Amino acid sequence: MATTEEMDRMYRWTRYIYDLTRKYYLLGRDRLLRDMELQPGDRVLEIGCGTARNLILLAKQRPDIHCYGLDVSTEMLDTAAAQVKRHGLESRITLRHCFAEQLDHQKTFGLDAPFDAAFFSYSLSMIPTWPQAIDAALANLKPRAAFYVVDFWDQADWPRWFRALLKGWLDLFHVHYRPELLEHLRQLEVKGVGKLTLQSVARHYAYLATFRKNS
Description:
The protein is α/β, with parallel strands linked by helices and 215 residues long.
C-alpha cells in the first residue's frame, strides 16, 4: 500500500504543474463528467481527487449537486483546497484525507447516507490495493447507484513504439495499466453484484467504465 509520505514526495513539486501537463494524456475525463447520470441533490464522490480539477468542473456544470473528494496525498489536498477556494466552491466541495480502501461515508465525511455516485479518474492505475478500493466504493454507494472509471486501456490500436513510450512515462509515476481490473469488474457482474458497461476512448487509449449496483 502506498503511504501518504510516498505520495507527498511524488507530488510535492509536480502538483504545481499537474493539471497543465496531464491534460495532454489523461483523455476522457471531461467525457466521464458529462456522461454521469446524476439527479438534483445528489452527493458525488471522487476517489483520488488530486488537485480537485474534476470536482471543480463538475460542481460548475451541476450547481444542483454536492461534490466530495478524497486523496491520500496531503500535498495534493493542499493544492485542491486552494483551487476550490479560488473558485468560490468551498460550500459545495468537501475534501478529506483518506486511503481509498478505508472510505467510510460516515467516518470520512460525516454523512448519514451513502453516496449517489462515485468515480475514479486515472486513480485505480495508481492504487496498489485497487480491489479493496472498488469494494469500498461499492459499500459506500446507495442501491442501484453507480461508480464510474476512466483509466488507461491497452492502446491496442496504437503503434508499438507509442505503447512502449507511454508505458515508460507512466512507470515514472508508478502508474500501471491493469488488465486484471476489467476482468475483476466482469466477474463482479457475473456474480450479480452489478452491471458493467464499457466504452473506448481514442481507439483503446483509455476506457470509460460504468458499474451500476444491483442492490
